[in-house]
Design goal:
The structure is a single chain. Helix 1 (2-13) runs antiparallel to helix 2 (19-41). The model has no long low-confidence stretch (mean pLDDT 81). It is flat, with a radius of gyration of 20 Å. The protein starts with a helix and ends with a helix. Helices cover 64% and strands 0% of the residues. With 73 residues, the protein is mostly helical. The protein has helices spanning 2-13, 19-41, 51-57, 67-71. The protein is built from 4 helices and no strands.
């Protein structure tokens, strides 16, 4: 799904037609929603992760400071 989203973003940024990719993205989201509904109907009761949870778990890259910047402190 991330590939489809990236493709849509790329086409929009280049001002190109993204109808096919956008429809594919919508269909993927429908399938995910259907799977979640089926999971819940089967007794699934766990809290599913959302985007905010994923962003909190993301590895934060630390920026190295040049040696001169450390000496000034």
């Amino acid at each position: 799904m991330a590939d489809v989203e990236a493709s849509v973003r790329d086409l929009v940024n280049r001002d190109c037609d993204c109808t096919d990719q956008a429809l594919a993205q919508i269909n993927l989201r429908r399938k995910i929603n259907l799977l979640i509904e089926q999971w819940k109907a089967a007794g699934g009761s766990d809290v599913l992760p959302d985007v905010r949870d994923r962003m909190r778990l993301r590895f934060v890259k630390k920026v190295d400071r040049p040696a001169g910047a450390l000496a000034r402190r």
